[in-house]
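agent> Task received from the user: take the single chain below, predict its 3D structure, and emit structure tokens. No templates, no multimer pairing.
agent> Plan: (1) validate residues, (2) run structure prediction, (3) serialize to tokens, (4) report one or two observations.
agent> Step 1 OK, no nonstandard residues flagged.
tool_call: predict_structure(input=
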Amino acid sequence: MGVSGHVILVGCGRLGGRVAKLLKEMDEDVIIIEKDAEAEFVEEIKTETGFPLLFGDAKDAGVLEEANVREAATIVFASNDFLANFEISLKAKEMNPRIRVVLRMFEQELAESFKKRFNIDSVFSVSALAAPPFAISALTKHVIINTFEIHGKLLIFSRFCVGENSGLLGKTIQELEKLNLSVIMHQGHCKELHLHPKPDLKIESGDLLLIMASSKVIEKIAEINEGR
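)
tool_result: status=success, residues=228
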């Protein structure tokens, strides 16, 4: 498939379907891999998203090649088979060291251990799992605190750490909020917390920001913060 910079979604069940629909709302390119062509939500997801589906075992390198894993930005595992998912994630990293991996497992403490030990970008325990943060983690490296929907619109609370090369440096809260977002909290390098900070407060290196916005605005802020 001649697509690049896309998301590979492994698993087309209830969670996979919800993640696929959210990624569709975010205008992402997605290829779905599903072992069972007769799975319950396959036709619904295919109809509602229009994403291409590959039927096969993602443990097979040939299936990953068909999904163009070497050019993919992210691989997201929404199936329940953790051992298989882990095996596939290692194979995907071997084929594309730059690929972002979003994995699910059952214990939060173990999830954090796997994340650090095996260079996996995001690991969610099932108890902490909800489709919106799972979907957002497919696209970004900043920290998602929470998500919720208002009148069908997904809003995200995300935490940003402002670095030395950030494009946010020197901007005021007022300038930042002109980008259709709300700065809920600011913490400066002196650790003083400001809830709903003053409009004229300037952003400095080392600051922490808690921002509420749509997914597209969050992505834009992430790019600016990374100096892109």
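agent> Step 4: summary for the user.
Helices lie at 14-25, 42-49, 61-66, 82-95, 108-117, 131-137, 173-177, 215-225.
agent> Done.
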